[in-house]
Each structure stands twice: as structure tokens, then as C-alpha cells.
């Protein structure tokens, strides 16, 4: 674990915001499993689509849709639904299959597997801090194994912007009544999590589970940890408490 001197020590922190994907659970295995489930459903309900589109083709269609509509790129659920609708129309299918496919994806998207320490540590931290989930993704926290671990949860599609835009951080501050100067954000992405948090006056914790190097072009985080156990112990020391 590494940390850097700060003019605003973390012992003043009362609010912790957490990224979700690749911070509290692995993201891509969940997404890929959900996409496979949707594609298998299409094979039965709309074989015209699977005759023309592999999983990779469906994904590329959404990517192109997001590039053509950058003002909607933060709304992953909306883009997926729009993509399914466009493809259904293209092949003369009832657009109702888009809603059904999207619902199947969302259920599968919530079947996340948190990293081993996450549930335990979040429970310990919630006894001492306000916890808010802030994610660019579209997992529904209340339908995951982390239901009940947070005071609030905000997704980019709900606040109208994705990190590094600060809208999610502002939403967390408003919901808890805690200023961002007394908040720390925990995330895995150097730009979207760490740099974005520092930019708005928050503290920033980089959770670096893979042991990668910090980008030299960005200001370093206040704290770097490889798991939430290390974060918990650091925060307890900052508060003058014994490590668990």
C-alpha cells in the first residue's frame, strides 16, 4: 500500500464513494455472460438477428451508435435498447423483442461476484462512514449481492453524465449533505476515478488490484491499495482506531 502526504488528511473524511465495475467486482466476465445469454435468447426468439449478427457485431453496433450520439453515450441501458430496436426494425421484427432482450441483459448484468473481501469490509466501513456507489455502468446495486451495503447509489444514466464528469460526485454530496472536501472516492480507473475526484476537491483512493504502474501524466492518488482490507486498515489508522 502506498500513500502520499495530503494537505487535507483523510481522517476528516466522512463520505466514501465507490466505483463498482473492476473496483468491487470483475466487470467483463459479467458483461460477456450477459451478452451470451441475450444472443442465445435471440437464437430462439429472433433467429433473423443471429443469422446476421454475432455477439461482436451487436456490440459494434452499440459502439457506433454511441459515437454517433455522444450526448447519449453515458446512458448504456438506453443505447442498448435503441440498438436492439433499430436492428429489429431493420429486419422487420416486432420492436417488443428489444424490451425483452434488454430485460434479459439487465437481469444477467446484476449477477456479479464481488471480490472476496468486499462485503465484509463495506459492512465495517458503513458503521463509520456514509457510503455511496457511483458508477458509469448500469448494474442495479439493489439486485446484486451488495444490496444494502450503501446509503445511496447513483448511475451515470440517472444523473445525465459519466465520470470523469463530476455529476455523480455532486449527486453523492447532495444526497448525504457532506461536502466533497470531506469525501474520498475509491476506484480503479486513473482518469475516470482518481483524476476526476481530485479535480473536484475530493480525496482519491486508487484500488490497483492488478499491480499496474500509475500513469506518469496524472497526479497521483492520495492512497493506493490493492484491496479493500488495506483501505479499511488505512482509514482506521487515520481515525486513530485499531486495525481489524
Attribute tags:
seven-stranded mixed beta sheet; 10 helices; disordered N terminus
How many DSSP helices?
10
- Approximately what portion of the residues adopt beta-strand conformation? 5-15%
Assign the structural class, choosing from mainly alpha, mainly beta, alpha/beta, alpha+beta, or little secondary structure.
alpha/beta
Portion in helices: 40-55%
pLDDT < 50 stretches = 3-8
Give the overall silhouette.
elongated
Count of beta strands: 7
**What order do the helices and strands follow?**
EEHHHHHHEEHHEHEEH
Strand order of the largest sheet: 1-7-6-5-2-3-4
Concise account of the structure shown:
By secondary structure, the protein is an alpha/beta fold.
Q: Care to describe what's here?
A:
It is a single chain. The protein is an alpha/beta fold. Helices cover 45% and strands 12% of the residues. It contains 10 helices and 7 strands. The chain has helices at residues 28-45, 47-52, 55-68, 76-90, 96-109, 118-126, 156-159, 167-176, 190-199, 228-238, and strands at 2-3, 15-18, 130-135, 152-155, 183-187, 203-207, 223-225. The chain has a 7-stranded mixed beta sheet, sandwiched between helices. Strand 5 (183-187), helix 9 (190-199) and strand 6 form a beta-alpha-beta unit. Helix 1 (28-45) runs antiparallel to helix 5 (96-109), helix 3 packs across helix 4 (76-90) and helix 4 (76-90) packs antiparallel against helix 5. The longest helix has 18 residues, at 28-45. It is elongated, with a radius of gyration of 20 Å. The model is unreliable at 3-8 (pLDDT under 50).
